[in-house]
């Protein structure tokens, strides 16, 4: 009953690995010490597995045959019915079963180890300097817009709508604005807080090379402050970014100053500073190509992430 099952398993393994019979036997005897250790105590010594040595098998080269003078030496085929009987084939069969069990078990352990490593790497997102490229504004899709005369990227945000907040205050926002999407995320109980969901300010602009906000940025800051007042449990993290132009260290310094500037403006508008944190990442994690003016303008930005709601 066991012979067909074992031979079938051996055949599948040899086909998957591309092994010949000699390859299989070689793999088994290379690992004979590990196989013997995997057996129950005393069984390996009683079967003599630890003392088995595989003789080196060499296949003689096939002589070149030139017809019509063919001379074939007689081939001596060993008698398969002679030898030690039942034990002659049972012992190798046991060795092969144990070897297959050991090798397949070892393969399973390696797969588990790799999966655990990947999970631990994924869990480290946002803990070593920001977020991964490609996770910003996942709900918005392709960003459409154009550069204005000042070189700032102006997004197409859709129609203007009025949002009524829980405290009764109404704010005017666009359908695809960061305010509208932020409110949707806060109110959606099926969207948990994580470290990869960020929202990009779409009307927050700074003077070139400085951390000074432009006047047209005030409207969006007022709206974000109103949202935080209406949802008093919500806390935010602000991330500052630049394009890749210039010195990376200088850019990181500017991005940190800009993130803190936006944070301080929200505090001035009535938000408790304990609910806000800010960090600058310089040119890291671009959301567009730095090869075009439009792409560089999109990379000069302030993002926000909900850390508690």
TrEMBL record:
CDD domains: OmpA_C-like. It is found in: Cell outer membrane. PROSITE patterns: OMPA_2. Residues 279-309 are annotated as: Disordered. Transmembrane segments: none annotated. Keywords: Cell outer membrane, Membrane. It holds the Pfam family OmpA. Residues 300-309 have a biased composition (Basic and acidic residues). It comes from the Bacteria. Residues 193-309 form the OmpA-like domain. This is OmpA family protein. It comes from Pedobacter gandavensis.
